[in-house]
Amino acid sequence: MSYPHDPHSHARPNEIAVQHLDLDVTVDFDARRLTGRATYTLDRSTPGATAVVLDTWDLDIRSVTAADGTALEHELGEPHPLLGRPLTIVAGSADTVVVDYATGEGARALQWLDPAQTTGERFLFTQSQPILARSWIPCQDTPAVRHTYRATVRVPPELLAVMSAENPTERTADGVYSFAMPQPVPSYLVALAVGDLEFRPLGERAGVYAEPAVVDAAAWEFADTERMMEAAERLYGPYRWGRYDLLVLPPSFPYGGMENPRLTFVTPTLLAGDRSLVTVVAHELAHSWSGNLVTNATWDDIWLNEGFTVYFETRIDEELFGADYTAMLLRLGRQALETEIATLPARDTWLSLALADRDPEGGPDLVAYEKGSLFLRMIEHAVGRERLDAFLADYFDRFAFQSMDTATFLALLRAEVLEPAGVGESDVQIEAWVYGPGVPTNAPDLPSDAFDRVDRQAAALVAGTAAADLDTAGWAPQQWVHLLRALPADVPHPILADLDRTFGFSGQRNIEVLTAWLELAIGSEYVWSADEADAAVAGFLARHGRSLYLRRVYTKLAATPRGLERAREIFASAAAGYHPVARAGVARILDAA
Fold this sequence. Notes:
Layout: E1 16-28, E2 33-44, E3 51-56, E4 59-66, E5 74-76, E6 85-90, E7 96-103, E8 110-113, E9 123-126, E10 146-154, E11 160-163, E12 176-186, E13 192-195, E14 198-201, E15 206-210, H1 215-221, H2 225-236, E16 244-248, E17 257-258, E18 263-266, H3 279-286, E19 294-296, H4 303-321, H5 323-341, H6 367-383, H7 385-398, E20 402-404, H8 406-421, H9 425-428, H10 430-434, H11 449-462, H12 477-486, H13 493-503, H14 511-523, H15 531-543, H16 547-557, H17 561-574, H18 580-592
Parallel strand pairs: 1-10, 15-16, 16-18, 19-20
Antiparallel strand pairs: 1-2, 2-7, 3-6, 4-7, 5-6, 8-9, 9-13, 10-12, 11-13, 14-15, 17-18
Helix pairs in contact: 2-3, 2-4, 3-4, 4-5, 4-6, 5-6, 6-7, 11-12, 12-14, 14-16, 15-17, 16-18
Protein name: Aminopeptidase N
Main location: cytoplasm
Keywords: Cytoplasm, Hydrolase, Metal-binding, Metalloprotease, Protease, Zinc
């Protein structure tokens, strides 16, 4: 097998690649450290190759041996500020190598939570995407290398351990748990969580884990998970991972969800109490095909992961909730994309990114997601949904458990979709979409009658209609978001005060609606004239750790000197509760202001 060059990894898998990992780790909450033994089964691609290279970050490498205990020559290279240190092991002719190690204080994939950060006493979770797995396991930390794994995890007996693998549903008496992942996965999809967890079934193949205080609410919120699985299979073929379970993490989890195979990690901000945010579950489920099954070869190709997944997610939504609902999601996505593009240098708005000298975590947020999805919508309009669906179903099956790069995918698209449909390059402008800035002019229209009704109410509000007299009966959360985005930045403060009194935006449970309100309150400077709005901003930033929404609110604050001062004040007290990924993202915003 040939592997592409990955600028974000020291590994040399074209010489020797990891084929299987056996992991044995002890979780020490007091020391905040994992102590482990990683045993690697090797796959030699180059005859005569003797060295296997692993990625590490702040790991204490204690010994390296062959399977029989014979010490192997090894060297930790010089530290790289982004990539960590390569661990080069002279394996000779050995097919197995064993590394004993412990994690260090700089283990960026690990978040150890204190009681104040969780409803239980202790909690640990990993977040390995994109290149953080190397901070808790020596590994070939590139999405192009896949391996199976087994693991033994030792935790305090009052806690439950779960992984991106076959999982227990009850605690053991001794706190020792065994896991198996029989399907090969890249290192960023190896995941672990430990906490006071309970399990609730959601169907024959689905269930949810969460802390006792929220597990029943989570089971109610995610009751449609099995229906989502069935809809996804009708679209693009069988689910290939056995079970699909969810783990609701504490509020410091930096993402909406993380698509760890068999066990999606999700934020508690999805527990809105009305099932209005479950499209995030559809997104993470869709990753079971796009991303987990067929994986981007490097992080420059992430649109093949996230763009496909947003497209797939909205197709699931359309199957379950209808075209009108999905039209609102598509319009909101396009709005968010245009907002982000306006802030980015032109090169960062290509689908094919250039992240070689950058942390891939610091790349553009929405281009890969929304522009990638819009690209597939454009192809659908050009060739017809039936033809594109047949191609995608075959694509996921043909390249299952493999990686894909942009050039290879585009060649497939041209040869197997566009040419048979008689669609030429000038009709779809592939080069402009993938290797050009912004959104090309042939992007499909995304009409929404529901949003047209909202626009009329926004105009009436600005013209003087009282909030209580607006026609908002039966509005979905997406319509409230659109209303808040549709209002001008200079909307008079009495109108905003009337809106908040009437609809209670400052106390909203739906994070999408609340964030849109906070952005409007900050951008219009209403926040400085209303104590409740300022309190809502401070409370939001202290209470939530979801990185995208933190960055949106901090970015609005940092746009003015007064807001920047307030942002730094809030960050100083709230940052300790953020995941390192979220903390670094906010710090970049404040440092650049």
